[in-house]
Write a structure and sequence with these properties.
Elements (H helix, E strand, L loop, with lengths): L2 E5 L2 H11 L7 E5 L2 H4 L4 E3 L7 H11 L3 E4 L2 H5 L2 H7 L3 E3 L3 H8 L1 H11 L6 E4 L2 H11 L3 E5 L8 E4 L2 H10 L3 E4 L6 E9 L3 E9 L2 E3 L3 E4 L4 E4 L8 H19 L5 E11 L2 E8 L6 H8 L4 H10 L14 E8 L16 H5 L4 E5 L2 E3 L5 E3 L3 E9 L2 H14 L13 H4 L10
Parallel strand pairs: 1-2, 1-4, 2-3, 4-5
Antiparallel strand pairs: 6-9, 7-8, 7-9, 10-11, 10-15, 11-14, 12-13, 14-17, 15-16, 17-21, 18-21, 19-20
């Protein structure tokens, strides 16, 4: 099976890396890729404008691949999967109509209401007066979400009403919600329009600084498994969130095929959905794929062809995985480009550590340089969370990027057994 992975981030490097390990996969193509995918054995990179759905389909046809895996949300929301399928090529990723579950938070709320999925109370606001009324109705902390795509940076949670109003004013349309207490969980499920196969739950770290301070980012770290989570969490989420959502979309004539990502809060009033995404999350994907023993290509191909119902149960390593993101100077507001990335050869020799490239490129002299905000995702595995975390931070300390930044508390509370789910008052 020849596969084309579309995208240029850490998620796509992780997907390409896992596919390249799969004995059922022949050629792995990545477009446009990054320095990491360019250096990946058995992978070939290609120039591509991922904002052009037809260009994605044309490249897939030119390469005569058997499967296209679309990583980022923007091309999915723009209809890239539809264009690929129109060429009779299997594609992992939802149609434009189904990808609206991420493309519009208002649409996601509509689907959740129809499917009876537990979520936060919310109002959709189209002008400042509506936003002001919604903020006053819910009270602080205020949760204001850009209705459209914002690369993980469209959400503001603040107790400052002026800041909340300012964010609403910058967006054409917003969803304002009640604040949800409790730890957050990411649960990914592979779907084929009818059947679902859940992956392990993970937890990610969205804000730029330790202690969840500073602005939201695309994600600064992640870990799995979640020893503190309820034993029946996956079963509960599939039954009450994932399957009802897949069923509702199918009943509307827009079946969802691909990766449905449920962002959850485990609150004092029970589990609630914060958001849906229509693709693999980044950096949770890096941590999850590090533990997946089952080959990836048959799973993604079964999703694309409606055959998930006959897939064997997934096999996982009985280890822990921690991912720490190293970001460029100035991220997320104004990331500096062009700095040289050092230390990669040294880190490559460490046990249990894999470095996934995100915002990198190859310079003319062959050196790796910064080309984006989130530069690297350093993923480590270990027998337990403490060891995996130690390995990850040991590796990060060996990375040399001028004025780079990373969080120092990824998986710290979990490693210390300090994550608590609030109880009803």
């Amino acid at each position: 099976m020849d596969v084309l992975v579309v995208g240029n981030g850490g998620r796509e490097h992780a997907l390409a890396y896992a596919l390249a390990q799969d004995p059922e996969v022949g050629a792995v193509h990545v477009a446009p890729g990054n320095a990491g995918t360019a250096l990946l054995a058995r992978a070939e990179t290609h120039a591509l404008d991922i904002g052009d759905p037809e260009a994605i389909a044309e490249l897939a046809a030119k390469l005569a691949v058997d499967l296209v895996v679309i990583g980022p949300e923007a091309p999915l929301v723009a209809g890239a999967a539809d264009r690929v399928r129109a060429r009779d090529i299997a594609c992992f990723g939802p149609s434009m109509a189904a990808a609206a579950i991420e493309g519009s938070k208002a649409f996601a709320k509509e689907i959740m209401a129809a499917a009876g999925v537990p979520t936060a109370m919310a109002r959709v606001c189209d002008d400042p007066s509506q936003a002001a009324a919604a903020l006053d109705a819910f009270g602080p902390p205020y949760v204001v979400k850009d209705d459209g795509l914002a690369s993980g940076k469209g959400v503001v949670v603040t107790s400052d009403r002026a800041e909340a109003l300012a964010h609403a004013a910058r967006c054409r349309r917003v969803v304002i919600e009640e604040f949800l207490d409790g730890p957050e969980v990411s649960l990914f499920a592979i779907a084929d329009g009818r059947n679902v196969v859940p992956l392990h739950p993970a937890q990610d770290f969205k804000r730029i600084n330790d202690n969840d301070e500073g602005p939201n980012t695309g994600g600064m770290g992640a870990y799995t498994p979640l020893e503190w989570a309820p034993a029946d969490l996956v079963e509960d989420v599939v039954a009450r969130v994932i399957q009802p959502t897949i069923d509702e979309l199918r009943h509307r004539g827009t079946p969802f095929s691909g990766l449905l990502y449920a962002g959850l809060a485990l609150t004092s009033r029970g589990m609630r959905v914060i958001e849906f995404n229509c693709r693999f999350g980044d950096p949770e994907t890096q941590s999850l794929l590090a533990l997946l023993k089952s080959p990836l290509a048959p799973l993604l191909h079964a999703s694309a062809t409606g055959d998930l119902g006959v897939i064997e149960p997934l096999r996982w390593r009985s280890e822990a995985s921690v991912t720490v993101v190293v970001s460029a100077a100035g991220y997320p507001e104004n990331p500096r480009q062009g700095d040289v990335v050092g230390g990669l050869d040294e880190v490559a020799e460490l046990d249990g550590v894999t470095v996934y490239h995100a915002g990198t490129a190859l310079a003319e002299d062959g050196s790796v340089v910064v080309s984006g905000g989130r530069v690297l995702a350093v993923t480590a595995t270990g027998d337990d969370l403490v060891l995996a975390r130690d390995r990850a931070y040991d590796a990060v300390a060996r990375i040399d990027i001028a004025d780079s930044h990373y969080r120092r508390d990824v998986a710290l509370a979990a490693a210390h057994g300090e994550v608590r789910i609030p109880t009803a008052q």
